[in-house]
Specification:
Elements: H1 3-17, E1 37-42, E2 48-54, E3 61-65, E4 75-76, H2 84-87, E5 96-97, H3 99-107, E6 111-115, H4 138-150, E7 158-164, H5 166-177, E8 185-191, H6 196-206, H7 214-225, E9 245-250, H8 258-267, E10 273-278, H9 284-293, H10 296-305
Parallel strand pairs: 3-6, 3-7, 7-8, 8-9, 9-10
Antiparallel strand pairs: 1-2, 2-6, 4-5
Helix pairs in contact: 1-7, 4-5
């Protein structure tokens, strides 16, 4: 790439990065013979969040779930354009469907509350549409906990969190900002959190743009979002995680680096934590589908702590 092409590419990345396109909700739990209820509740700052409550008769255990960037509570239609183009360069051009996850949790004895984060799915728009890698979205995590504690039939339930990517970072930021809200949360499953700087370094590498242009890209992202790359990294906030944590990640994920997830995990200051690496693939989306393929480790974690 010549200088003009590099400058244009950096500007395009920066200007588009802060605002995420929404993706459609193509399925609902009924397809998997799951009874469910359409519910909504306000985020901590009042943004309306749309959700499904999937009851498990006789259970007093509740898993609250959220989703990655570009996704919704359904998953992500990466087999269709324009959403296919988002991850196609790294082999992530296939559907992610979370309905199987809900079925597995239901059959294992858990109620589920799964919601769309702000600016995604059917939830409300907020903050000028900016996606903040968890900073603003942390308010949605607090909103989901408030809803669970205020709804009569959920008030006495044991709560666990299952947070993915953007939603995982949002949960970590929420724990750092509002630790009082997590005193009764029994455990936390975190899937593939990431830092923006690391994924941008990998993107420049794939595009054969010199690595020393990362600071220029950082300035562009700051102009587009008012956040620098490091402002939204969950590495430092991870020091505030006090809930037993199981984290998992595709080790050779082409979109990021294992050193990022390792740094997040290492900063969690508790003994009750585990990091599991998914091997044999370079596709990030395989991580999102992994629970449906082999939920044994995650179910064992829930069984251990959801008492």
């Amino acid at each position: 790439m010549n200088e003009e092409e590099i400058a244009s590419a950096l500007q395009k990345i920066a200007s588009s990065f802060g605002h995420s396109i929404r993706s459609p909700i193509l399925e609902n739990p009924a397809k998997y013979d799951l009874e469910y209820e359409n519910v909504w509740f306000p985020s901590e700052d009042g943004v309306p969040l749309e959700a499904w409550f999937i009851p498990r008769k006789g259970s007093e255990k509740l898993i609250i779930m959220n989703h990655p960037r570009w996704f919704s509570r359904y998953g992500f239609p990466a087999h269709l354009e324009p959403w296919k183009s988002i991850g196609a360069a790294t082999g992530n051009d296939f559907e992610v469907n979370f309905m199987r996850d809900y079925k597995i949790l239901h059959d294992a004895g858990y109620n589920t509350l799964t919601y769309d984060l702000r600016n995604f799915g059917h939830s409300g728009s907020a903050n000028g549409g900016v996606t903040s890698n968890g900073v603003y979205e942390s308010r949605d995590v607090i909103g989901s906990l408030t809803y669970a504690r205020s709804r009569k039939e959920l008030q006495r339930m044991t709560i666990g969190l299952f947070s993915r990517c953007l939603g995982c970072a949002a949960t970590i930021f929420a724990m750092a900002r509002r630790p009082d809200q997590f005193s009764d949360v029994k455990c936390f499953i975190g899937l593939q959190p990431l830092s923006i700087r690391v994924i941008m370094e990998k993107a420049l590498e794939r595009m054969k743009i010199p690595a020393d242009r990362i600071d220029e890209l950082d300035r562009g992202i700051k102009l587009a979002t008012s956040f620098s790359m490091d402002d939204t990294s969950p590495v430092k906030p991870a020091k505030s995680v006090t809930v037993p944590t199981f984290m998992y990640q595709v080790h050779d994920d082409l979109m990021t680096s294992p050193r990022d997830v390792q740094a997040i995990f290492d900063n969690i200051p508790i003994k009750d934590k585990e990091l599991f690496w998914i091997r044999g693939t370079t596709r990030r989306w395989d991580g999102y589908n992994y629970f449906a393929k082999d939920p044994s480790k995650m179910l064992a974690w829930l069984e251990k702590y959801m008492r």
